[in-house]
UniProtKB/TrEMBL annotation:
Domain Glycosyl hydrolase family 31 C-terminal positions: 727-812
Lineage: Eukaryota, Metazoa, Spiralia, Lophotrochozoa, Mollusca
Protein name: Uncharacterized protein
Signal sequence interval, chain numbering: 1-32
InterPro entries for the chain: Gal_mutarotase_sf_dom, GH, Glyco_hydro_31_AS, Glyco_hydro_31_C, Glyco_hydro_31_N_dom, Glyco_hydro_31_TIM, Glyco_hydro_b, P_trefoil_dom
UniProt domain Glycoside hydrolase family 31 N-terminal: residue ranges: 178-318
Location(s) in or outside the cell: Membrane
Keyword Membrane: yes
Species the sequence originates in: Littorina saxatilis
Superkingdom to which the source organism belongs: Eukaryota
Length: 940
């Protein structure tokens, strides 16, 4: 951690140094521009029509004339009303007017009034602007602005600085901050931070308005505004309340997690989202486990998109609302942030996938998981004892369930204290873990960040040593902050402390010598607390009671069921670092497992923030055993992939409550296509592992698992693509098919697999949208889905079936299913070929990435095999791109939609055996032993 802290400091120093270096070329012109060149305030006016040459600056006298005319209008008659009193719905008249705002009765609702900003609400005014230059090229802008009036919030910062930097062709950054006082900034080690890019090489124009200040960032290629604060909620920058608004390109908005909602956010319904990580079972309109203030906004054509990321870890509320425009339907977003600075990144796309790749390349691409972690995981809180634990393992083995990882929740520990093992209740646990390893299986245990603090001194080294080293979060008085979690009174490890890495390494290493686990599950790291604040309460300071507490924070206070914001870490206050607490634990834990095992680490974390996907997998929390929770899991997992967390899943069959047989069957079918597949339940619920059910249910669940295990080479390859290109592993349909923007009960694996699960109880059909412009094959029957596409269709979905279709033009690498990934890897590779019957000539393509599945940095060290496969009419060929890992043997090729039985099939000029099914029109070439490191040509 000390190394990371040093890197953070270097990054911040480097950024400031770059800006100082750039500004030395313009420091004199900053002063001159105020009087001599007023046109420099405006890069473009609002009538911008495409190119720099066509645009005209707006003279100052014209702007003043517009302002004078505006004064004659009714300042409260604005059609777009931005909330001036976000603390309270329907505030008293006097409170609203005291803020200088308008109170308007909402039409049709006699008892509700809107307190909103007038059109001429006073704000910041630009007083200087100059370009930042590097080698005579403009690479950014330096703006100073001031305000003379006060906002409704205390400690206004009257002078602000805005720095705009063209970072890459498709990414622009702008920061608004206090130039006189160093405020907290997020200590995240950003990636892809190269030298600035000259403006003319980017896809951005920047437009400034002087009074009141606004900034508009426009995509050059089509004049589409990507961030536009003009006429939106006014800029406010007080010590503990920062506000800015932007116009959206359309109401089709995605992201802004972690929240339970439909995939497309509710702009029309004025949805409000709170970012303050909390141990909260997933429910709508509540703050949940993670903070990801990034959104993707589709534009009016539903094809192009852009993205915006606010790099800020403080508590915030985001409000979405429609705009009453004469033209195309749009909306707005208003940020209300409780601290730090405004540090925005704008991504120009233009495709949805481009936007995600541009964002994830900045925060860090998803980690490459160990191959075994792609198998089926099984867990329950409260197995009770080692005997019951062993029974679960045995019955699922006896049922021949594909099954790779058995987990232990906290009940394995002594008194719920981490780094302990209850060797009475869980007698023989080390031997059980050894048996798992002997069967090619793995074990993951849970670890919480809370350290029991109430036992006698000298009896619990994790607390004694942490206390001696000063490694616990401290209260406002400087003493260890004590809350209550599972073991009772609890101190919280400060993962931002430079000595914590060695401390955490020591106890992970010691405990691994007792229980040789294969991965760590870090839970309760929001951080969760069973009381509000500490055992001694919280302070009366503005950190614990800020002037604005976002409505929607569950519990109503900043310290509800968590640590007091006034608590202190080595780097800053918990007020600033709360949303990064789980993120900080994730990084240390992943790095330590990497050091200890000398293998690819596997960490699962509940609390996340931007960049968490670089280090760990994530699950969507303590869901309910219900069909609505099953359905919501899809949008949650799609959102996580948009946030760069490719390996994500939901607790299959649900964590809370008793899962009915039908629900568990449907959820196992859907879960077979989660990136991370784990069945998990609380201690009070009935058993829900596959081996517990009747034989018919077992057969259905086993078939779903067989499908997943057969697709593991394809899934693994998609992870490689995600890891190397920042592309999401799974994605919404609208990424590939316009007209599907509101669909969130179906999803795509890459561009090859369309998954259409049953999400309603009792359903034996599924209404699925089949996109136009592609053909699809049923993965079970290998037959063509005979519909024209571009519409909704009713597909048969008996209890034993989940509808999964392969898009024509795809080649999927596969393996014969086995009961573990260890055994599966011993099988011969297979290829499933789905021709694109729409194109001429008939084509298909695919890729296989293969390595040993566990070594560190195989991609960076080029210790892998990468093969491209191409179909052209009746010829299938391979192109070996890399061949540093072997053996990789091809045993079978299956080709769909072959019109008739061929007279012969040739592999590199030699006849090979084949079969042809006249009903399904499937050609199958089997009994092969071809070394895939040697290119081949298969013809028929």
């Amino acid at each position: 951690m000390a190394v990371r802290n040093f890197r953070w400091i270097l990054r911040e120093v480097a950024f400031v140094a770059v800006l100082l270096h750039l500004s030395q070329y313009t420091v004199n012109s900053v002063q001159a521009s105020v009087i001599k060149t007023p046109q420099e305030y405006y890069r473009k006016n609002t009538a911008y029509s495409g190119t720099q040459e066509q645009s005209q600056s707006v003279p100052f006298n014209k702007l003043h004339l517009q302002a004078d005319i505006r004064q004659t209008l009714d300042q409260c008659s604005g059609r777009n009303r931005f909330d001036c009193y976000p603390e309270k719905t329907n505030p008293p008249v006097q409170d609203c007017k005291a803020r200088g705002c308008c109170l308007t009765r909402i039409h049709g609702d006699k008892g509700t009034q809107s307190c909103h900003y007038p059109l001429d609400y006073d704000g910041y005014r630009v007083v200087s602007l100059s370009p930042l230059k590097q080698v005579n090229a403009t690479v950014g802008w330096n703006v100073t602005m001031t305000r003379t009036s006060s906002s409704p919030y205390p400690k206004d910062i009257k002078t602000l600085q805005l720095l705009v930097l063209y970072e890459t062709t498709y990414r622009l950054r702008f920061k608004i901050f206090d130039p006189a006082v160093q405020r907290y900034e997020v200590p995240v080690d950003l990636h892809d931070q190269d030298s600035p890019t000259p403006e003319e090489l980017t896809d951005f124009h920047v437009i400034f308005e002087k009074d009141p200040f606004s900034i508009s960032i426009v995509r050059k290629s089509d004049a589409q505004p990507l961030f536009d604060s003009k006429g939106m909620a006014p800029l406010i920058f007080a010590d503990q309340y920062i506000q800015i608004g932007s116009r959206l390109a359309s109401p089709l908005l995605y992201g802004l997690g972690e929240h339970r909602s439909r995939l497309a956010l509710d702009v029309k319904g004025r949805q409000k989202l709170v970012f303050w990580n909390r141990d909260q079972p997933p429910e709508e309109n509540l703050n949940l486990y993670g903070t990801h203030p990034f959104y993707l906004n589709l534009e009016a054509d539903n094809r192009t998109a852009h993205g915006v990321f606010l790099l800020n870890s403080n508590a915030m509320q985001v409000e979405l609302q429609p705009l009453n425009n004469q033209g195309p339907e749009t909306g707005s977003i208003t940020y209300r942030v409780l601290g730090g600075i405004l540090d925005f990144f704008v991504f120009s796309g233009p495709s949805s996938e481009d936007v995600v790749r541009q964002y994830v390349s900045l925060i860090g691409q998803s980690f490459m998981p160990p191959f075994w972690s792609l198998g089926f995981h099984l867990c329950k809180h409260g197995y009770g004892n080692s005997s019951e634990f062993w029974k679960v393992i045995q019955r699922n083995r006896e049922a021949k369930m594909p099954y790779d990882v058995q987990w232990n929740d906290l009940d394995y520990s002594a008194g719920n204290k981490i780094w302990t093992w209850d060797n009475e209740t869980y007698r023989g646990l080390p031997e059980i873990i050894k048996d798992l390893h002997d069967h090619g299986q793995h074990n993951v245990i849970i670890v919480d960040p809370g350290i029991s603090s109430s036992q006698p001194k000298g009896t619990y080294p994790p607390f004694d040593e942490g206390l001696e080293l000063g490694l616990f979060v401290k209260d406002a008085s400087g003493k260890p902050f004590i809350g209550k979690v599972w073991p009772g009174d609890t101190a919280f490890v400060d993962f931002f402390h430079h000595k914590t890495f060695d401390y955490w390494l020591k106890f992970i290493g010691l405990f691994h010598g007792v229980l040789p686990f294969d991965g760590l599950w870090i839970d309760m790291n929001e951080p969760s607390n069973f009381i509000n604040g500490s055992v001694n309460g919280c302070t009366n300071s503005s950190l614990d009671h800020p002037p604005f507490v976002p409505p929607g924070i569950d519990g109503g206070t900043m310290y509800s069921r968590t640590v007091c914001p006034s608590a202190q870490h080595q780097q800053s206050s918990h007020y600033n670092l709360h949303n990064l607490y789980g993120w900080s634990e994730t990084i240390i834990t992943s790095q330590i497992l990497r050091v200890l095992s000398r293998k690819r680490p596997f960490v699962l974390t509940r609390s996340t923030a931007f960049g968490s996907g670089t280090y760990a997998a994530h699950w969507t929390g303590d869901n309910l055993s219900s069909f609505p929770d099953l359905a919501f899991s899809i949008s949650s997992i799609l959102n996580s992939n948009i946030f760069g967390m490719s390996m994500v899943g939901a607790d299959i069959c649900g964590f809370r409550g008793n899962a009915k047989r039908e629900l568990c069957i449907r959820w196992m079918q859907l879960g077979a296509f989660y990136p991370f597949m784990r069945n998990h339940a609380e201690g009070y619920s009935a058993p829900q592992d596959p081996g517990w059910f009747d034989s018919e249910a077992q057969d259905i669940m086993r078939a779903a698992l067989h499908t997943r295990y057969s697709l593991l080479p394809y899934i693994y390859t998609r992870y490689y693509i995600s890891h190397t290109t920042a592309s999401p592993a799974i994605r919404p349909l609208f990424f590939d098919f316009p007209g599907t923007e509101l669909i969130d009960a179906q999803f795509l694996w890459g561009s090859e697999l369309l998954v259409s699960p049953v999400v309603q109880e009792g359903a034996r059909t599924v209404k699925a949208y089949i996109p136009k412009g592609a053909c699809f094959f049923d993965l079970d029957t290998l037959t063509l889905l005979g519909v024209p596409g571009g519409d909704w269709y009713t597909l048969d979905a008996p209890l034993e079936k989940i509808n999964v279709h392969v898009k024509g033009g795809s080649i999927l690498p596969m393996l014969p299913p086995a009961v573990t990934t260890t055994l599966a890897r011993q099988g011969k590779m297979e290829l499933l070929v789905a021709p694109d019957l729409i194109s001429m000539p008939v084509t298909a393509s695919g890729q296989l990435f293969w390595d040993d599945g566990e070594s560190i940095d195989t991609v960076r060290q080029m210790q892998f095999t990468l093969i491209n496969f191409t179909l052209n009419e009746t010829t299938l060929t391979s192109d070996v791109q890399a061949k540093s890992y072997s053996p990789v043997t091809l045993g079978k090729v299956t080709v769909m939609a072959v019109e008739s039985a061929p007279p012969k099939v040739m592999l590199n000029g030699q006849k090979v055996n084949f079969t042809y099914d006249t009903k399904s029109r499937v050609l199958m070439v089997s009994e092969l032993t071809w070394n895939l490191l040697v290119p081949f040509e298969l013809t028929w």
